[in-house]
Amino acid sequence: MPQDEVSGLVGQVARVGAFPTVDELNEFADTLTAEHPHRLAVTELGRSRAGDPIREVRIGSGGQHILVFGNPHPNEPVGMATIRHLLGRMVVDDAATAGATWHFLLCVDPDGTRLNERWFAGPHTRTGVARRLYRPPATEQPEWCFPTVWRERRVGVPLPETLAMMTLIDRTRPALIASLHNAEFGGGFFYTTGGDPDYWFALTDRLAAENVPLYTGKPDVPSARVLAPGVFELPLFAPMADVLASRGVDAVGALGGGGCHDYAARYGSAVLVCEVPLWIDPRVVDDSAGDTMLGDLLDATAAEVRALAGVAANVLHRLGDGLSGHSPFERSVRALVAALPGLAQTRRAVLDRTRVATRAEIFLERYHWVAMLRLRLGGMLLQLLEDECRRAAAPAVRSERARFAALFDQWCADIEQNAPGVALPLEHMVRLQAASVMLAATRLRDGLPI
Asked: In degrees rounded to 5, what are phi and psi of residue 64?
């Protein structure tokens, strides 16, 4: 598929000053539907745990159905901006539907997204976002709660939001599901359930078109195969869980349940995940030899991750029963502390430990993996302590907040000095993600593998 056709179908992407909030995207969809009632239809698929509507917007009339999931992870809001652009594009030009019927699930997790909205308008710095970020535990991530079977055991307890996705999948039997994610720092990459080299390299060409570095490290999903540089196979739950179990990790605790790929496999649905970074750094593609062996590097990373878990665990231990239990950040912090030892173990599970690590690998381990976990866990722990202080917490909580805030400030200063990254313009992220989805849609139209 010529890239210029894909670009033409995507159209011009206007400047994006901020990520849309849940309310803003709902209002946009309602206005568009009121103006074009014969082109669009809005359906409520269910309600979130807090009572927010889970809404689908349908456009197009083709025989093949494409599902687009916005914000499966609530700290990854690029997808909502991409949905807003694609809806606005398709409503004025039917050719942009690529002959398919599209179903846009505006926001998979509105409850979690609302907890992140404080940083949507910026400033979009790594440390500024971290101080306002919320990431739910695996068991509260709707896209990882699909029911499935592993080793004759039923796993995955669907959340109301998951049930809404299941309803949409069962009703449409989609040919393609595009799950819109964004990475935090480093390079761009993709997960797909199929395709061919033409497809995979066309996807990574979209990164090059936006001057986004291509992430060529290990996939962050266990058991995923490398299909091409920066393109990974999206596996089912069972092989992922098998790999984690072989490393002594509680697979169900780490993964939660199946993904949409597990559930939609009965219909032969293809899945595409586009991971667009918020911040980029040219050092992620420096393949020159570094000054340490890969095995030593990964051992050091694992030790730092375990130490991070220990820092947070000690904070929680010192507080004892001094926490109210009302903050959603507490569940996330406790779940991440419990998961970090297993994650540390997976960092060491490589076969080529005796080769020299590249400078890119050294940089990514220190300032992507370790730093990302510090910022994520530290930011949520600090917000938990601030929540408790606002609830007239005991002096011990206030003291702990001051103590940990000083340490978190040190972590932030390290990032701001050594790896702040360059914020990718939001419209670049939208254009890249929209083009990736449109590429898959046009290949589907033309009978090419995806």
From this structure: -100, 140
Tens-digit pLDDT string for the chain (450 aa): 456 899 999 999 999 999 999 999 999 999 999 999 999 999 999 999 999 999 999 999 999 999 999 999 999 999 999 999 999 999 999 999 999 999 999 999 999 999 999 999 999 999 999 999 999 998 999 999 999 999 999 999 999 999 999 999 999 999 999 999 998 888 899 999 999 999 999 999 999 999 999 988 888 899 999 999 999 999 999 999 999 999 888 999 889 999 999 999 999 999 999 999 999 999 999 999 999 999 999 999 999 999 999 999 999 999 998 899 999 999 999 999 999 998 888 877 666 788 999 999 999 999 999 999 999 999 999 999 999 999 877 888 999 999 999 999 999 999 999 999 999 999 999 999 999 999 999 999 999 999
Tokens of 177: 């599901």
Nearest to 39 by CA among 108, 88, 106: 88
The encoded tokens of residue 50 equal 């807090």
**Residue 152 carries which side chain, given as an amino acid letter?**
E
Task: Kindly calculate the radius of gyration of the chain based on its CA atoms and give it in whole angstroms.
Answer: 21
Q: What is the DSSP string of 387-445?
A: HHHHTT--HHHHHHHHHHHHHHHHHHHHHHHH---EEPPHHHHHHHHHHHHHHHHHHHH
Cα(331)–Cα(139) distance, integer angstroms = 10
Supply the DSSP symbol for 63: S
Contact criterion met (CB below 8 Å) for 230 and 208? no
Q: Which of 422, 442, 438 is nearest to 280 (CA)?
A: 422
State which amino acid sits at residue 192. Answer: T
Beta bridge partner(s), residue 154:
149
Strand partners, 103: 58, 67
State the Cα angle at 75 between 274 and 192, rounded to 5°.
20
Q: Is 93 helix (H, G, I), strand (E, B) or coil?
A: coil
Instruction: Tell me if residue 309 falls in helix, strand or coil.
Output: helix
CA distances from 34 to 38, 54, 104, 246 (A): 9, 19, 17, 54
- Dihedrals φ, ψ of 159, to 5°? -80, 165
- Determine whether 94 is exposed, middle or buried from the number of CB atoms within 10 Å of its CB (0-12, 13-18, 19+): middle
To the question of pTM greater than 0.90 for the whole model, the response is yes
CB 58 within 8 A of CB 41: yes
